[in-house]
Structure formats: structure tokens, C-alpha cells
């Protein structure tokens, strides 16, 4: 039996003294109201209304049951209200601070069409993990080992001057080579790529080809790295899309293939799955990952 529906009909009829008016107030047909109240009477084991008069008059048993019925109806209505509010509560998501405002706005717009509201918190990888661990966010676009993520973003080297080769070999930056004898060129790693699977692999290439330690370094911010690149012959490790947005020339690295790999980590599994599936393309745009019909740089 629908206890809540029956109690709503019971309360509505009792307040208006009429099955017809009570049913109308409850927005159900009068026969439905009568059936629900009859089922409630059978369930409780007593008559709630005296049907010997034209008005719906409560019996003593009905008067005793009415306060509990009202509390149940009020509790059900409060629960429905809270459910509606919960649906509108934004999902707090930690995202890479490399995502553009425009792409995040498009992701937010597409999510709203699915009834999902997002609240973005741009942060570097370590901070995203900490925000999720301390439950300051309910989901995060997290770095995962290459090949295990839902989204992959190839990395290369970006510079202010257009390179003459199709790929940049790190060994050509070695001090003492004839081509670069006039100075020491550096590769800047932005905070988004300051993670072992990217940073350490590039450092190993640096050591293997004989670069000086300072020639591959982590920049305090992407802005600082780009400022150094614009004022010199340095490179910044970046995705092809980042380089395009920053108006820099981009080439893959000759000695190693480096890739950002991302997945959604969340305490809310249902909404995380929506980000992974229905919003996959929108998230890919934010990350600069290739989507269907596109070719990864």
C-alpha cells in the first residue's frame, strides 16, 4: 500500500470535510482518494470517516490517527523538497588550471542539460589530490598512469621561434654543440606536468644526453614559464593546444613520448560516470585531448 499517498488523501479530505474537495486539493480523482482511504482504514484496522452524513466527518479513531498522518505527510514533503535541492547542488570538481574559462563554461552548459550542476576548482595535480582527500571537492580530474586514463594529451616542446625540424631532440640543447654554442637553452616544465611519470622521464633524458641539471627545470607557474620562453630561445613542455593558444610553435620530442593521462576520481560514482561518458567530449576539450574525428597532435 502507498502509505504516504493514502495519508495525503486522508489529511486533505479531513481538512476540507469532503471527499470531492479533498481529492481536488490533493490533485487526484475522487474515486482514487476514496480507494486510498479505504485501503488505509483496512491497514490500520479502523474507520477514519463517518460516511453516514454528507460531510466527511472524522470518527474518534480518525481524530486519533490524524496527527500522525500529518507528520508523515510533512516528512514526505520535506524529503521531496530536499531531493529537489540536492539535484541542484553543484558537484564540486577539481580541474587542471590549464583548462580555459571558455571550455569550462561549455562543459558546465552541457552538464546542465543532463541535470548536473558543476562547480569548478582549478588546481595543480597535487592540490587536486589534496582537495579530494580532504573532501573539499567531490570529484577531481586526476592524473593516472599513461594508458589507464579516459583522456590522453600528447606533450611536446613549444618555443617562440619556429623550429626548422619536425621534432625537437633534447640532445641538440647540450651546451658546447656548435648550433647552440652562444648560450644555454632550457626546457621549462609547467606545474601541471610536475608529476613523476612526466617530470622524471624527461629528467632521465636530460641526464642521458648530457644536459646540465638546470637545463630542465620545473617553473613556478605556466605564466612564468611562457614569459621566459618569449624572452629567450627556451622551450616549455606543453600540449599542442596550449602552444596554439599561447601563439607558440610546437614540436614533439624526439627521444621520448610524453603524455598526460587523466580520469575522473570521485566520491559520487553516478555523476562521475556522467562526466566519463555523456560529457566525455566536453571534458576532452577542456584538457586539450583529441576527440572523435580529430587527430592527436
Automatic annotation (TrEMBL):
Keywords: Transcription, Transcription regulation. SUPFAM superfamilies: Winged helix' DNA-binding domain. PROSITE patterns: HTH_LYSR. This is LysR family transcriptional regulator. The lineage of its organism: Bacteria, Bacillati, Actinomycetota, Actinomycetes, Streptosporangiales. InterPro entries: LysR_HTH_N, WH-like_DNA-bd_sf, WH_DNA-bd_sf. Belongs to the LysR transcriptional regulatory family. Transmembrane segments: none annotated. Residues 1-59 form the HTH lysR-type domain.
Amino acid at each position: 500500500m502507498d502509505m504516504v499517498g493514502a495519508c495525503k488523501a486522508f489529511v486533505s479530505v479531513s481538512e476540507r470535510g469532503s471527499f470531492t474537495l479533498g481529492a481536488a486539493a490533493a490533485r487526484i480523482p475522487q474515486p482514487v482518494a476514496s480507494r486510498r482511504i479505504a485501503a488505509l482504514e483496512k491497514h490500520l484496522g479502523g474507520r477514519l470517516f463517518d460516511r453516514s452524513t454528507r460531510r466527511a466527518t472524522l470518527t474518534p479513531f480518525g481524530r486519533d490517527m490524524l496527527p500522525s498522518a500529518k507528520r508523515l505527510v510533512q516528512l514526505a514533503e520535506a524529503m521531496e523538497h530536499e531531493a529537489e535541492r540536492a539535484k541542484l547542488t553543484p558537484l564540486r570538481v577539481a580541474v587542471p588550471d590549464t583548462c580555459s574559462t571558455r571550455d569550462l563554461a561549455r562543459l558546465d552548459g552541457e552538464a546542465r542539460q543532463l541535470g548536473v550542476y558543476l562547480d569548478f576548482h582549478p588546481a595543480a595535480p597535487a592540490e587536486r589530490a589534496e582537495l579530494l582527500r580532504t573532501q573539499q571537492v567531490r570529484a577531481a580530474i586526476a592524473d593516472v598512469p599513461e594508458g589507464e586514463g579516459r583522456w590522453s594529451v600528447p606533450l611536446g616542446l613549444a618555443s617562440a621561434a619556429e623550429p626548422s625540424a619536425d621534432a625537437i631532440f633534447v640532445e641538440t640543447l647540450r651546451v658546447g654543440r656548435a648550433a647552440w654554442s652562444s648560450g644555454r637553452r632550457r626546457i621549462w616544465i609547467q606545474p601541471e606536468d610536475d608529476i613523476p611519470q612526466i617530470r622524471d622521464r624527461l629528467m632521465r633524458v636530460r641526464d642521458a644526453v648530457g644536459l646540465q641539471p638546470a637545463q630542465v627545470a620545473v617553473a613556478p607557474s605556466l605564466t612564468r614559464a611562457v614569459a621566459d620562453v618569449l624572452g629567450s630561445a627556451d622551450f616549455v613542455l606543453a600540449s599542442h593546444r596550449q602552444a596554439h593558444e599561447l601563439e607558440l610553435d610546437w614540436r614533439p620530442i624526439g627521444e621520448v613520448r610524453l603524455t598526460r593521462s587523466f580520469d575522473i576520481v570521485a566520491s559520487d560514482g553516478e555523476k562521475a560516470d556522467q562526466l566519463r561518458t555523456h560529457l566525455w567530449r566536453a571534458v576532452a576539450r577542456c584538457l586539450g585531448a583529441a576527440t572523435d574525428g580529430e587527430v592527436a597532435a
